[in-house]
């Protein structure tokens, strides 16, 4: 089987091109895809926290970094075919994607998502950022955050709340969100903000 499976957490052994095609399928066929980048730290958190492992079950998880690659070698007898990470893969997808897509950026400290939106728009002018929201909100504000995302009607939602916050948010809210692609992106917004 083309995946690393530990305690119910499945990390797909998939190439960058295969991920791009899964993303395009979701965007074009209007089905929903939750994508997560699983590094060793995230895997460890999931193995120690059954509720996090359960939240990850609805994700396409891909391998991110040396730690999880070593884990694959130990438990599966082989390395992943490609080493992927969100900070490289998401900009590469946005660059390769010629069809115009709309994005919502959720997460990071106040001001960061706005700066990231400006830079992403300059770098990938075919796409449009239709909304931003910082990632320091109370649980009681979640419904309002979800409503603001749906009001902006993005194709793609990037969620930068760290682990486990970003994957938990996606898992709990996916059925209320209209976006077709939901991605946990870690520190991407901080990088994109410059
Ligand atoms: N973050 C957030 N809200 C939180 C915690 C983190 O918006 O409650 C953001 C943080 O500002 C950063 C991103 O999530 O932009 C990744 O955070 P961090 O590096 O702490 O998480 P890790 O990638 O280590 O899981």
UniProtKB/TrEMBL annotation:
Coiled coil region boundaries: none
Keywords on record: Glycosyltransferase, Transferase
The keyword Zinc is assigned to this record: no
Protein name: Glycosyl transferase
Superkingdom in the source lineage: Bacteria
Keyword presence, Transferase: yes
GO molecular function annotation: hexosyltransferase activity
Residues of the full protein shown: 15 to 208 of 269
